[in-house]
Amino acid sequence: MRNDSREPNQLRPVSITTNVNKHAEGSVLIEVGDTKVICTASIEERVPPFMKGQGKGWINAEYSMLPRATHSRNQRESARGKLTGRTMEIQRLIGRALRSVVDLSALGERTITLDCDVIQADGGTRTTSITGAFVALALAVHHISKTVSFNKYPIRDFLASVSVGVIQERALLDLNYEEDSKAKVDMNVVMTGQGKFVEVQGTGEDAPFSREELNELLALGEAGIAELIEKQREVLGEVAARIGVK
Amino acid sequence: MRNDSREPNQLRPVSITTNVNKHAEGSVLIEVGDTKVICTASIEERVPPFMKGQGKGWINAEYSMLPRATHSRNQRESARGKLTGRTMEIQRLIGRALRSVVDLSALGERTITLDCDVIQADGGTRTTSITGAFVALALAVHHISKTVSFNKYPIRDFLASVSVGVIQERALLDLNYEEDSKAKVDMNVVMTGQGKFVEVQGTGEDAPFSREELNELLALGEAGIAELIEKQREVLGEVAARIGVK
Amino acid sequence: MRNDSREPNQLRPVSITTNVNKHAEGSVLIEVGDTKVICTASIEERVPPFMKGQGKGWINAEYSMLPRATHSRNQRESARGKLTGRTMEIQRLIGRALRSVVDLSALGERTITLDCDVIQADGGTRTTSITGAFVALALAVHHISKTVSFNKYPIRDFLASVSVGVIQERALLDLNYEEDSKAKVDMNVVMTGQGKFVEVQGTGEDAPFSREELNELLALGEAGIAELIEKQREVLGEVAARIGVK
Amino acid sequence: MRNDSREPNQLRPVSITTNVNKHAEGSVLIEVGDTKVICTASIEERVPPFMKGQGKGWINAEYSMLPRATHSRNQRESARGKLTGRTMEIQRLIGRALRSVVDLSALGERTITLDCDVIQADGGTRTTSITGAFVALALAVHHISKTVSFNKYPIRDFLASVSVGVIQERALLDLNYEEDSKAKVDMNVVMTGQGKFVEVQGTGEDAPFSREELNELLALGEAGIAELIEKQREVLGEVAARIGVK
Amino acid sequence: MRNDSREPNQLRPVSITTNVNKHAEGSVLIEVGDTKVICTASIEERVPPFMKGQGKGWINAEYSMLPRATHSRNQRESARGKLTGRTMEIQRLIGRALRSVVDLSALGERTITLDCDVIQADGGTRTTSITGAFVALALAVHHISKTVSFNKYPIRDFLASVSVGVIQERALLDLNYEEDSKAKVDMNVVMTGQGKFVEVQGTGEDAPFSREELNELLALGEAGIAELIEKQREVLGEVAARIGVK
Amino acid sequence: MRNDSREPNQLRPVSITTNVNKHAEGSVLIEVGDTKVICTASIEERVPPFMKGQGKGWINAEYSMLPRATHSRNQRESARGKLTGRTMEIQRLIGRALRSVVDLSALGERTITLDCDVIQADGGTRTTSITGAFVALALAVHHISKTVSFNKYPIRDFLASVSVGVIQERALLDLNYEEDSKAKVDMNVVMTGQGKFVEVQGTGEDAPFSREELNELLALGEAGIAELIEKQREVLGEVAARIGVK
């Protein structure tokens, strides 16, 4: 039995509130259980130096946790003077995942930066950030589309992410913090609305895992992501309609 | 006429929601108009090196803005690798102000860190942070008092802060961002529940000001702070009762 | 009785020696009691990026203390790899104060950087820096005026600064280090030759202060600054004549 | 046809030279095609602060590339003043992977640091580092075993890693740099001698991938790793005998 | 008797292997006894900002040691976030020495960066780096000469370096690590093929030295460098022929 | 003819003013021509970590230039966030040179830090710093000797330094900035009161130099240093008497 009485294949309650920031071109507060992340999308009409002159856009992500998002207070990375390896790894993952469903040529020479700030953490902050950032991104692209006429809509597909893991020989969906800290195998899965994989990151630091376990985890993740994408569709309403249309 | 139709001596709508963070010993979301700040208080049972062995506690504050708290996105200080002078100045101010109403000997050898994270900015973020952080601090001290018996209650008085300024020869209370950027004189006032000054910081970079203007601004600030302290009392409920009791 | 036998409203001996540096366009050694600061003004024929294309100039200030300016040696900020919050706060204050009496449009697209290096510290280093930096600035603008014909003289007024504080219920002018470390209220005042306020920064970390105390402190500061400006006029000689002329 | 005429399931030539460093307790030069990495293992008789007092050891990894390991010269991270996100991600991966086959309790309170320095890069530097670092680690543990009698041998199993990817709809083993830069899907697999997974990191930034493709890639990786482990056994000689013995 | 049985005026065995890196325009592995350094030369068709528009080239050097090049492991400078004073001093020396034999005008507006990475250290790493870097530089200039027709060949002379020192009143050539750590006087000499001095850096931190000792050390260095330059000529083969030709 | 009409073997006017800082245990203002350096000595009753438990003391030096010490303003190293290679090289040299005449065992477990801050620069700032720092050090050791009874006096000998160089084939003593920038060979010499060498650092970046030139430069330096040490003796008065006494 899970510590919050969920079924092995049950997500925590998911809530996505849109337009929570009066300045950002797209924004959401996403809550998955007690994990709460504010995702904002900011548009700039230029691209980073390494992308210049290619007629393409860029999607960038940054991730951070408020010092007291966690059980005990963490030192701010601004005070340490540098990002931790964990933060860098997570924001590289978020950016890469989002870019996989964006047609950068269709976007044109502009950058959209997704800021994922974890207000409260209870496991799954990186997967929740991806799921929330996708919605903020979709709102920002919709915002651009009000004044810019895209030849092709830049968002090719939906995208969401969830964690799965093995605890005491059982595969579980959407681990909370207490579960995460006991998991022998920990995997983050990112998938598209078409049911394809964008990222699969499985780690068995405490116990290597078999092909069977891997398959079971992927199946759980696939089902969970389908539910999350359903939720995204719902909150995006009419904005959802143009995604993936050719 | 002000851009949001307020009277010169009228505060913006103020809302203070307590216990917004499941981990922190004290927490609030304070909203003053469109300025929104999450303040959390974190208790550690030790003091910084320079305070060791004195039998006293310490109050520390940190301040930050989410990248898109502002109209256009700001680079994260963690990414720049250092704090700006503005951030340092603000967090020194918040810490100093809070310490002025705390009896550090009565607190005992523990540190309370107040994190003020601006979720959305529309002027007055430093004064709003002080007003909100005081409430989070009061909640944290109350939390300690459940298990520790203080000889003397460590919080001596209430504390709140507001900005005042001169625009087109008129003294105004609680400037929003648009007003702030047009003000010729800008002043932040921090006061106690007893109506005494803790900090007075007035700047006339664009136009030096006279003794009369200074007096008018201080009177406006005094009245505004009294209102804010009334609000603090209300949300603190029974926690307010022990503050300042000898 | 003060530890150096001064009256409550008496400044320490003030000495301002001009042209102490063979390279700088303006320079002074200012001594206020045992506090000694070298202020140099350096002219560059360009402005920082954020000021470009506005046809205006810029005044910038930097502040530092030699490691052994103080009673015990301080680590260099260059060795720590970053400026302390105190240094940032002080140099922001100096720059802001100087800009308040400069007509940046009249100055034209050039930057004057004021370096205030404390050779020996005995209280009041920030206020002494402002008073000395104003003289170095006036010399540098005079230097420019030898080759450039200003439509309007860029310096609008004199500027000086002094500290005031409350020790054992008495308001005192120009605190030395020993006094400063015992003061319950500490205030820095910056004023113009016309007797207007540019900055008022009062802090009662150890004891909040009343409106009456504030008034008494401002009166002391006002008188002290008038004396300092008299001194500035004297050392500037003919350079003083053009200041504030329209 | 591959640019170096290999079969889709063929590794590049692999060479592992042991004891290439006279100071290190374990060292190898590993060459996989034109990718060359020096891996050294350094033993310290203490553990990092977060591991103290648990009676356990620690395995740590650091990764770097010489500036001209790559086609065009890269700036040194020491000159930039910080590690890139890529480096942090890689060294976290190497450390995590190695720890998965080490019994930290059996190792005792000591730290083994694996330095992986890429002398020349041609794709697969992170997987090659893992494969080489395992051998250096095994040599270092063997070195300890000469003077320390382990109750249980601290290395539980072999460990190696390889990259796989999809280029033009074909799954390929062990991508070189040119292949890697054209791959639509890129996956790194780390496995044990028992054929279990330790890490699976698949990324389809350019094109999401299906469950079938994932399965095909894993099968290729599995076979390649078995070959690499055979090579490790060979160069370790008698040192190999104790690995995984209970 | 020396710890490796050498005569006082005898170099350690010297080996210079050219073209050890497939990417670099010039590269060597130089071994002097157990000291091993990889030197690569990288060409860029531009010069640093301070050299722009002068029609001249630039030679730059960087130096680093792998963490386990030394007897006990050293922390990486990339992890510390800054270069040590020792590294900066050495790389300034290498660059300055190489520039002394290069005609920067003849080279044209291009930069050659010499990276000296110490793979294994046993004394004399900076002098070995200079001797090796010269060969890599010569190969890189030769590489340029295949496509660019120089009016004047940019390398004016050979260049090599060796250390000398005084141990127990005896002057010794080419100190290894054990000797170096016992030396009372330590000197690094850099000379040209014409037998002129480029750098003489002698330090008697433990015991000041006389003019006679200085003379003896210089004589030893001069002879050792002549041998090293002979070795350089040999490995450079036909590339050597154009050096110093007018 | 030199630009300031000196003879080739003539020092610039030298002035050493002692006790210029009320806080430091030893301090001087040294002026050599227009080069002006404040040297302070600070005593701490502890040694750095790497010297602990050896019963020995330590001498450390730091060097810096005020931003406008030079013809055009230099950026502060504290603002850049790191020391330049030049600064590190110079402060390593000063510390090493001073330690060569101090008996660290006789000094006991204390650290003396010499801060050399260049107030105005006109060539020779590092050699002037050494000459001045020696006097500050001697004053500080004398200060200790008032309360501590040394078995052996910790300062073994005098120490001073001067620059020499070759301009248009002539060897010159004590180069000023204009000379220094035209010198083909540049050498810094540090010697003891007994006439022995502590450091010889000669550089011929623009033109390699012969053994004869080297000898001529050393002879010039030797004579100049003897004069400087005479000056040191004079200003130290009775403090000079104990130096080098066994």
Automatic annotation (TrEMBL), chains A, B, C, D, E, F:
It catalyses: tRNA(n+1) + phosphate = tRNA(n) + a ribonucleoside 5'-diphosphate. Residues 10-140, 158-223 form the Exoribonuclease phosphorolytic domain. InterPro entries: ExoRNase_PH_dom1, ExoRNase_PH_dom2, ExoRNase_PH_dom2_sf, PNPase/RNase_PH_dom_sf, Ribosomal_Su5_D2-typ_SF, RNase_PH, RNase_PH_bac-type, RNase_PH_CS. It is an enzyme of class 2 (transferase). It holds the Pfam family RNase_PH_C. GO terms for biological process: rRNA 3'-end processing; rRNA catabolic process; tRNA processing. Keywords: Nucleotidyltransferase, RNA-binding, rRNA processing, Transferase, tRNA processing, tRNA-binding. Phosphate binds at R86, G124, T125, R126. Its EC number is 2.7.7.56. One of its GO terms (molecular function) is 3'-5'-RNA exonuclease activity. It comes from the Bacteria. Signal peptide: none annotated. Belongs to the RNase PH family. Homohexameric ring arranged as a trimer of dimers. PANTHER family: EXOSOME COMPLEX COMPONENT, EXOSOME COMPLEX COMPONENT RRP41. Phosphorolytic 3'-5' exoribonuclease that plays an important role in tRNA 3'-end maturation. Removes nucleotide residues following the 3'-CCA terminus of tRNAs; can also add nucleotides to the ends of RNA molecules by using nucleoside diphosphates as substrates, but this may not be physiologically important. Probably plays a role in initiation of 16S rRNA degradation (leading to ribosome degradation) during starvation. This is Ribonuclease PH. It comes from Paenibacillus paeoniae.
